[in-house]
């Protein structure tokens, strides 16, 4: 009789134990972790890591088991082809949701793969409007798009900087050109003249030929759509050529790295925008920035808070649905509403962040200082 009872008791004990055992849930993060803008990708990755650590500390239960969220991180090197390769790697690894990519040029092509696999994707920083205009149910964005940001840049250049003549340069990426297109549209709508529309690439560091041509046209403002790795040399060479025009760039260069790369070329005539709120106006910004510095030994570059809120949104949606199955929790993600580090997190039917804002910063006293917020 004991021989029969023992296996039964053992099975019962195992069943009871398994009900309380951790269940591992893989979640993905992808961005440029190497190359000229690797610091921005690592910034996003760190924000995701912090969100996962916070979630695991809460011992959230999903399906009756304590969920242990495990990060699978990939490097897309800011390259569209690589982005598709690593997106497929994440899908094959069985991730249940993805925060990424960083660039519009990588986010947009990868989004089709995630959509076909039914895996929710939240970009913390890609701003090209096309991303959420594709009709995919799996695409979400944490920040204002280029229509909003480009419009804010153009408006600031014309109204605040009194720019009557504007020169626009971009790096021909989906992000840079898309942003520049929106700037040009807004500038013209406000009655100012675009005296030059030039472009390089996302690898250009020698801008002298383009800038020499622009100098002859004496623009009031020069606006650049691109990342910090190219914006820094551009600004430095502008000043060395004696171009005294105000300089305005977007969120891809609105970080400490631009200050470093521009060297003696940066001055109070340099402005940049970030698609989001300044940290002192984020509901939990001060606390997050301090925790981030302590945990990683580095300052937030740009979008780590949005990467944090993006991963938190995925985890909260799983908890609300009591499931990590994307088919089950996706509707909860689409309708989610919570107060995050960056503010109210809620998406439009298309997947854009609701009520996105754009902050304009000016270089002053060695750093970027927020001077106005455009809603």
Structural account:
Keywords: Signal. InterPro entries: Leu-bd, Peripla_BP_I. It holds the Pfam family Peripla_BP_6. The structure is a single chain. With 375 residues, the chain is an alpha/beta fold. It folds into two domains: 19-144 and 282-346, Response regulator (Rossmann fold); 146-274, Response regulator (Rossmann fold, 3-Layer(aba) Sandwich). Helices cover 44% and strands 21% of the residues. It has twelve helices and 15 strands. It has helices at 2-20, 38-58, 80-93, 104-117, 146-160, 174-189, 208-215, 228-240, 256-262, 285-296, 304-321, 326-334; strands at residues 23-31, 61-62, 65-75, 98-99, 121-123, 139-141, 165-170, 193-199, 221-225, 246-249, 270-274, 337-339, 344-346, 358-364, 367-374. The strands form three sheets. A seven-stranded mixed beta sheet has the order 8-7-9-10-11-14-15, with helices on one face. A six-stranded mixed beta sheet has the order 2-3-1-4-5-6, sandwiched between helices. The chain has a two-stranded antiparallel sheet with strand order 12-13. α5 (146-160) crosses α6. The longest helix has 21 residues, at 38-58. The chain is elongated.
